[in-house]
Description:
two-stranded antiparallel ribbon
Amino acid sequence: MGYKVAVVGATGNVGREMLNHPGRAQNSPPTRSWLLASRRSVGVEVSYGDRTLKVKRSSIMISATSISA
Length: 69
């Protein structure tokens, strides 16, 4: 069974460090990923494992249902 990951602050120092090790905790890459950051980082492309993903805007309140699709 796969798992999903959302990295909030993906373009910051801690977020980048997390992205350097995709799937490390689970020994496999996630089946679905979201990279979230502030408004100024929206659209930035970030490498994550063997993929390149675009950063989406995070908001103060994030619920699992808003990113589950």
